[in-house]
Specification:
alpha/beta; Molybdate transport system substrate-binding protein; AvModA-like_subst-bd; metal-binding; ModA; signal
Length: about 250
Amino acid sequence: MRPTRFAPLLLTTLFTVGAVQAAEVQMAVAANFTAPIQAIAADFEKDTGHKLITAYGATGQFYTQIKNGAPFEVFLAADDTTPARLESEGDTVKGSRFTYAVGTLALWSAKEGYVDSQGQVLKHNDFQHLSIANPKAAPYGLAATQVLDKLGLSAQVKSKLVEGQNITQAYQFVSTGNAELGFVALSQVYKDGKVTGGSAWIVPAELHDPIKQDAVILNKGRDNPAAVALVDYLKGPKAAAIIQTYGYQR
């Protein structure tokens, strides 16, 4: 029988120099949360001395990897249903699941002035490609399809959809010009209260199901002090302040 291979989109190790008796924690992080967790990691490692080994990817893919024995100890998902499912299946530490952020969807273009503040560019249909994340694997992609359904535009734009494997790839399609616009996580294009480049419509929350993002300690992290410390840190004021600067709610 061939061994299962795990290949998340991006694998990085974040570390603190000179940490004494530091533990390390392997965590799986939804791609939309890449920038915030990298900022949080710097403070966490400085404050605790623990080391993070972090993989970024699609929530649905991480579920499959976890079920197949991936070594992750903490999981930061892009939804609340996947961690709840893992919990119901006995793969998590009881009582460790909590909502660490509530995400916001944005329609974004790398071009200044291309996307208006009401998202009317979608109805005008004067574009060739609209990027979204795979709705079967990425909650932000599912939210995007719900928006199109609510606006009655699903059939109109169907032939123009370009699907990314996850929200990072959906963003890359737009940032590289392969799609004129796309649905991305607001956190990818937002910092300190403003869109950092291009143009965007911040999608009203009532147009899609809430994007509640839950974290959980997995069974492999049950006896790891770094896993417990990380979850506690994510609940604290320093992490909350960083999370909010990227357009998330708590």
